[in-house]
Specification:
By secondary structure, this protein is mainly beta. The chain is built from two helices and twelve strands; from the N terminus they run E-E-E-E-E-H-H-E-E-E-E-E-E-E. The chain starts with a strand and ends in a 5-residue tail after the last strand.
Length: 171
Amino acid sequence: IISIANNHTSVLLNRQTGWLSSWQIDGFEYLAGELMPDFWRPVTDNDIGNSLQLRSAIWKNPLEGAVIDSLLVTASADSTVLVHVEHSLPKPGARYISDYRIWPDGTIAVQVQMKTGALTQPELPRFGMKVLVNAAYDEVSWFGRGPFDNYADRKAAAFIDRYTLKAADFF
């Protein structure tokens, strides 16, 4: 485990996986699991019609067999800590590079990039990250159209306002 901590903040990275595994501010844990890359999304009818779920299946679990090539921790003059991690993803033949910049107040800026290798791969359905948050975060607030699903051509009943819903109401 790599620990970056002060009296206010604690951030842990799993040295074996290279993923951010804990983020605490004033003793409160924000994460319920590791912050990890995610390249898959639920398929739509159009996706099924063009066989995306078969053609791009390699992106469902590309982290299988991932290897850490480099893990560097550097303290900066501005009191931040930079953690630079490079993974090899053998299944898709790619390199995944993560930079975590951690400020003393607990702010974390995450910047990632992926470089494909010589292997030609099908389209990437999604380029993002998956984070499981602490169950105490069970409400979502936003300013915009709502409180129900709405689309550009069906928004007349979805007024712009500030809304708050329980996270469970989104599923």
